[in-house]
Specification:
The protein has 484 residues and is mainly alpha-helical. It folds into two domains: 2-264 and 383-478, no CATH class; 287-367, no CATH class. The chain has 18 helices and four strands. It has helices spanning 2-7, 9-29, 47-66, 69-74, 76-98, 104-118, 121-126, 131-157, 191-212, 220-243, 246-262, 266-281, 285-298, 310-316, 348-374, 392-425, 428-447, 457-478; strands at residues 36-37, 44-45, 162-163, 175-176. The strands form two sheets. The protein has a two-stranded antiparallel sheet. It has a two-stranded antiparallel sheet with strand order 3-4. The model is unreliable at 301-346 and 480-484 (pLDDT under 50).
Length: 484
């Protein structure tokens, strides 16, 4: 069997690569329709879960019969990932049997979902990613980006349907249509997820644009590619502005600055700062939300709300990023939402910004901290902090405790270490690409301090797939690099 496997190894590796592309396209473009609804749970099993399961089984077959499992178990990133999953298993057992904070079905499902996302990084690592495959991966990624952007505009201007999971009712797969003033989510679960995806893609585009800049006057083909990338960057940024995601805007700014520092393009940093300031000065929903953040939350113009009854208190804790709107700004006392309680801002836009901050600081973060204190070393188990925490690292402490937290931090450290190792050895286009991957991973982590990005299936899947294919290509490109 092993001889037969070696004979058809190259063909099977090609099949596995196309399977990676299939997972990438399906995850990015297929909307989050539930396939199997789970009782007493907000999350559902979706079709992409079966595709990823098939991919993992196929890769497991390949790794076992090709003998590459030996290389995989020597990989330090894989070793730490295994340790992280083991901590998750022990934490789950503790949560179910000892402190009894979660149900068996919920903790098992959430644990398997974490494994499903993280395991994607090893798919790209296990097969040779040559230049042709790497180019196809990037091409597929950018074509998907164009479709995502086009669909976002379709939601706003052509009434394309929207599937979202921002609350319990919509997470059942209910189709809604956006009205003027609402923030687009395209094929993603919400506008926050779309914004994080666009930040990742724009950092890649910025890096490629900077790389081609010296060649635009010398090479017509590269000049055409430069114009195409500029168009893609502008298109993506326009859609990004429609999300009005404040944290992702900050993450994009920091990511661009970090990227230019890695590329030693110090003169472009000042230019970038001026561009971002000009964007903030231009009238937009993003600028308005930044100003409202200062007015409503930072300046403390509004006193902390005090619900007058339990029903209002329950409704005021709904994390609804954008309230339904007719497209106009409501004045004081005009058709206010029914769940506005005494002490809250009475302007509908200010209500949304106010709650976005208040829910984190007064509901989600204290709940996660209480879950952490129940069992500081192992946490309260997966699913113990319900659907959202809006801080990935606080969520780690709550669900898997100090042990899980530090294991995941070590995993992140090893990924950065490996990326910087290749960054030092690379030059030319490859150095620009690695710099972009480092910057987008950094921006992803910035987002994780106020959004649960590592649990958001679409963008987390993209991140781990991108890192896996990147490492697969770098290993192939540098040939048997020393283990780090």
């Amino acid at each position: 069997m092993q001889k037969l496997m070696r004979k058809y190894l190259s063909k099977f590796e090609e099949f596995l690569f196309w399977l990676i592309l299939s997972v990438l396209v399906f995850v990015l473009l297929y909307q989050k329709f539930p396939f199997i609804e789970l009782p007493k749970m907000v999350v559902s099993v979706r079709l992409e879960d079966f595709l990823i399961l098939f991919a993992v089984l196929s890769f497991s077959f390949y790794i076992f019969f090709s003998g590459k499992w030996k290389d995989l178990i020597r990989n330090r990133i894989f070793q730490v990932a295994i340790l992280f999953w083991l901590v998750g298993i022990v934490s789950s057992y503790s949560a179910i049997s000892l402190i009894q904070t979660v149900s068996f079905s919920a903790v098992v499902f959430h644990f398997l979902r974490r494994v499903e996302l993280l395991i994607l990084v090893f798919l790209g690592m296990t097969i040779p990613i040559n230049k042709r495959r790497f180019t196809l991966f990037l091409l597929t990624l950018f074509i998907s980006l164009f479709i995502v952007n086009f669909y976002a505009l379709g939601q706003l201007y052509f009434h394309f349907p929207s599937i979202s999971t921002i609350n319990t009712e919509l997470s059942k797969g209910k189709i809604v249509y956006l009205v003027p003033g609402q923030r687009v989510n395209s094929t993603f679960a919400g506008h926050y997820d779309l914004a994080v995806f666009l930040v990742m893609m724009m950092l890649l585009l910025v890096s490629f644009v900077v790389y081609l800049l010296p060649f635009v006057r010398k090479d017509k083909i590269k000049f055409f590619a430069f114009l195409l990338l500029i168009f893609a960057l502008g298109f993506s940024f326009y859609v990004f502005m429609l999300t009005a995601a404040r944290l992702s805007f900050i993450a994009l700014f920091l990511g661009v600055v970090f990227l230019l520092l890695l590329l030693n393009k110090n003169k472009l940093i000042l230019f970038s700062v001026l561009i971002f300031l000009a964007i903030l000065a231009y009238p937009s929903q993003l600028r308005d939300r930044f100003l409202l953040t200062i007015k409503v939350n930072i300046s403390k113009e509004w006193i902390s709300f005090s619900a007058v009854n339990k029903e209002q208190e329950k409704r005021s804790q709904l994390n609804i990023p954008t309230l339904p709107s007719s497209g106009k700004r409501l004045d004081v006392g005009e058709n206010l939402p029914a769940d506005v309680v005494p002490g809250e801002p009475v302007n509908i836009a200010e209500v949304a910004v106010y709650r976005s901050f208040e829910i984190r600081t007064k509901v989600e973060w204290p709940r996660a901290w209480r879950a952490f204190l129940r069992n500081p070393f192992l946490g309260s188990g997966y699913s113990s902090v319900e659907l959202a925490t809006d801080n990935d690292f606080l969520r780690l402490l709550a669900e898997v405790g100090i042990l899980g937290f530090f294991t995941f931090v070590i995993l992140i450290y090893l990924i950065f270490k490996r990326l910087f190792y290749f960054w030092k050895k690379s030059s030319g286009f490859l150095r620009y690409y690695i710099s972009a991957v480092i910057a987008l991973f950094f921006a992803f982590i910035v987002n994780s301090f106020l959004i649960d990005v590592f649990e958001a299936s679409k963008i987390a899947s993209l991140l781990w797939l991108l890192l896996g294919v990147t490492f697969g290509y770098l290993d192939y490109n540098f040939r048997a690099v020393k283990r780090i």
